[in-house]
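Researcher: Here's the sequence for the chain we discussed earlier.
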Amino acid sequence: MRCSREVSVPCRCGADAPKVGSPSYGLLRSHPDAGDLEALDTYTKWLKAGVPCLHPRFADGEFWSILKRSGVNTDGMSFYGDTLGVVLHTMLSEISSTKFHSKYMLVGGDWSIPEHTRYLEKNGFINSIPWCPSSIWVNGVVSGKLAEFLEALVAEDRPKVLIANGLIQGAADFLRSMFFEIQAKAAWQDRQRALSFIRRLPKDSIVLYCAGMASEGFIFDAFKVRPDLTQLDLGHLFDGAFEIRNRSWLRKEGVCRRRDTYFDRYVPVILGKQSSFGSF
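Model: Thanks. This is the structure I predict for it:
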């Protein structure tokens, strides 16, 4: 099992691991593709180095939870503004103040909605958090960079677990990982059960989340008691492979190129219809 000692891993741009409290890869308003690729390269290097890296992601559902919007997101998950929303705001506050600190962390962010940007500006979070785009996994499919990351992840000899709903349990076989099932529409209600499970994981384990907005809350809870763990929110990475296509952005004409690449190139790999990652 690999050691989790701190290792300085240079980014493709030649810089050391981003420090909390400084902006990374430019402002997200423009979502430059270079930011996606550089962040994905960084996580691939961190995995190969065996360091305990973190990747929480804040997109529309997380921000609407913080702002206590009622209703559900495109996955049918409730926002839980009075509970999960409070936890997520606290998480950003502690990352901003470096109370929640990891040398190996980039925070995925989507600032495309003005209300979310105003929230970040009001709380001083724009330049005090190591942001990267929230779309690094899907854009990695388009660029081909995701293949290298997945190859490194599958090859990892550290214990792995995928925390997700039962619809994508097959992804655990692909990842060569354990599987911990949470509720598909109410993952946050499994908070204590998930934390109890995570506490007992072997040292230096890798925890992979496809649990919607609850993923960030789980990462925050677990880091407090198990800072040795690698914790990555993979978002909707496996949805297409298991015919879960309820996300509105995948149905928009404006993202047709990414949608087609996502399903046509990535899904066969997950389903085991291609024998080599090099076939991307």
